[in-house]
Write a structure and sequence with these properties.
five-stranded antiparallel beta sheet; 135 residues; 5 strands; alpha+beta
Length: 135
């Protein structure tokens, strides 16, 4: 019985959190919330940059598909503008003959805002003629 009465006296003296404990808990909570909000802002900025890079690659793909569609003989150097999602991308095309059957197409897409330009360098191959069918 003596142990129970001492525990009851000890519990009666405890009256919840003190001011210091509450301030420490609040400080830890604020630091955590600030860290999460900073992480959210960084994630949003990286998503915006990834979107711009995707649009640059899409602009290059559009130009390269036009070059391939026009054919081997029509592949020439030049410049073009591609509009995607309200942004105009300046695309510069450079064609270099590697051999009689291979051309290297260099596509440079200028960035939006402070994004730099990106370069894509695929090769274009001259198709071989199909053999005549044997009757």
């Amino acid at each position: 019985m003596a142990v129970c009465s001492r525990m009851n006296d000890h519990i009666a003296n405890e009256r919840g959190f003190g001011l210091v404990e509450a301030l420490i808990a609040l400080t830890i909570l604020v630091i955590g919330l600030v860290a999460v909000s900073g992480l959210s802002l960084a994630t949003a900025a990286q998503a915006r940059i990834a979107n711009w890079r995707t649009q640059q690659a899409t602009a290059a793909q559009i130009v390269l598909e036009d070059v391939q569609k026009d054919g081997w003989d029509s592949a020439v150097s030049g410049a073009d503008t591609v509009s995607l999602s309200g942004h105009d991308y300046t695309v510069t095309i450079g064609v270099t003959d590697i051999s009689s059957r291979v051309k290297q197409v260099t596509v440079v897409v200028d960035g939006v805002g402070d994004m730099g330009s990106r370069t894509f360098t695929p090769r274009l191959y001259k198709p071989r003629p199909l053999p005549d069918p044997v009757p």
